[in-house]
Amino acid sequence: MHDSNAWVDPFGLAPTNPIDRAFLKELLGSNAKNGGVYMFRTIDVRDGVEKWYVGKANNLYSRLRTHLGTGKLDPAKLSTLNVVVLPHGVETDFFKAEANIMKRFEDAGENLANKINSPGCK
């Protein structure tokens, strides 16, 4: 259970709940160290409204664990997490995939929680 009064580590180094880490490992399976794109529901710090957040990572498990540590990925919202794995991708592939997913959300009328567009949007 997420405690809204808990201290949040802005660098994502705070210990995370073992159950949450196990969920990530179960979800990612053998793709934990692969790169790809992820999306989850989060509270947008700019307006306090729940929105989708889309990101890319060279190592999905490491990046998602960081999001858990910073509080961007609330353990209560882990069920909203979706991942697209690009097993042999490189950073350019991840940026392009992230940009494509962001565009799909925007085309569907979703206002994303992302503060900036993906460099792949260029």
UniProtKB/TrEMBL annotation:
Highest taxon, organism lineage: Bacteria
Pfam family, one: GIY-YIG
PROSITE patterns noted in UniProt: GIY_YIG
Chain ranges of the GIY-YIG domain: 33-112
Transmembrane parts of this sequence: none
Protein name as catalogued: GIY-YIG catalytic domain-containing protein
Organism: Gilliamella intestini
